Amino acid sequence: MEREEEETPFLGLLDILHESCNLVLHRRKIFLQISLFMILPLCFVYLAQIEISEIMFKEIMHNEFVLDSAPQGTQLSTRISSMLTAEWVAFIFFKVSYLFFFILLGLLSTSTVVYTIACIYAGNHISFMKVMSVVPKVWKRLSLTFLWSFIIVFAYNMMSLVVLILGVILFWSKPIMGTVLLFGFPLLYLSGFFYITILWHLASVVSVLEESYGLNALSKSQILIRGRMDIVTEVFLVLGLSFFGIEHLFKFLVVFRYIGVGCRIGVGILFLILLSISALFGLIGQAITYFICKSYHHENIYKLSLADHLDAYFGEYVPLKVDEVQLEEYEV
Question: What is the pLDDT of residue 118?
């Protein structure tokens, strides 16, 4: 598969999907190994926590109802109150544990796929064992980028909450302004959150393939998406919608038990496979989008420089060399 240099900056959504399919088909073995050992466990943890959280929360709500119905000060109410406290502690502990493992597996999967694609484009020999030996070093850089992204998201949410409270206080009594606030604020909030999410995902690729990480990687990703915000938005919007669709269909058919037990197991496995495929293609598309943005800004990534940079994870760090010419064509 080859792409002319002048075509690279202007690849569209379908072109990215085509490139992703070709990469997976030509390197089936390595991507199958990554999917089985990294992405499949990630998706299993994600879907399993939905089911377990629903079971735990239903039990908590049931006991809350029983407590409200029980006479106050009785032995029954005391026992149920103690039970509820233990259930809430268990629920919170489960959620925190899930977030820890999900973030860990997510960062490992991202570093694995991005490093693999970069090796393929650079023409480096690649094997699953080689990738796994490099991932711990890449993961440290990704962790700092994720930490700064989390801080930015937290600050953004706090700022949005303050703006919302002030808006309600100042404009809720005014019908026109209240309506604008009701419909306009969610749209603005989601747009900002989506933009931050795009920056974080692209910064993850930057953290693996360049010397920048943390705030520098986020700043770099902000520069890269300028001029190609259209394709970046399309890629991440399609990925987001696919995850949203799979998750809610899983909830409707499996979690909420609208089908029998046997069918729920089969459908659950089907959704696990679909989510794993979607995650794999999402990470591949994320990396390809990075190369497109680099090419659009006339930042050439030489294969030799990229190969040296990737091999440097086995020894001394080598910064990625960039020149102001077109992205070199790549071949799989």
Answer: 83
Average pLDDT over residues 273-283: 94
The pTM score is 0.84
**Residue 329: DSSP 8-state:** P
What the block records as the tokens of 167 is 């808006």
How far is residue 290 CA from its own chain's centroid?
Answer: 15
Directed axis angle between helix 229-250 and helix 261-296, to 10°?
170
**How far is it, in rounded angstroms, from Cα 96 to Cα 108?**
18
pLDDT tens profile 97-150: 999 999 989 988 998 898 888 888 877 778 888 888 877 778 788 899 999 999
In DSSP notation, 189-235 reads HHHHHHHHHHHHHHHHHHHHHSS--THHHHHHHHHHTTT-HHHHHHH
Asked if 84 and 63 touch (Cβ cutoff 8 Å), the reply is yes
Q: Which residues pair with 2 in a beta bridge?
A: 331
Residues 251/48/197/307 CA torsion (nearest 10 deg): -130
Each residue's pLDDT tens digit, 237-271: 998 899 999 999 998 888 887 677 778 888 899 99
pLDDT for residue 5: 54
Assess contact for 223 and 296: CB atoms under 8 A.
no
For strands 300-301 and 322-323, give the pairing: antiparallel
CA atoms within 13 A on the CB side of 177: 10
How far, in Å, CA of 154 to CA of 148, rounded? 10
Residue 237: CB partners within 8 Å, gap ≥ 6? 194
Q: How far apart, in Å, do the first and last CA atoms of the chain sit?
A: 6
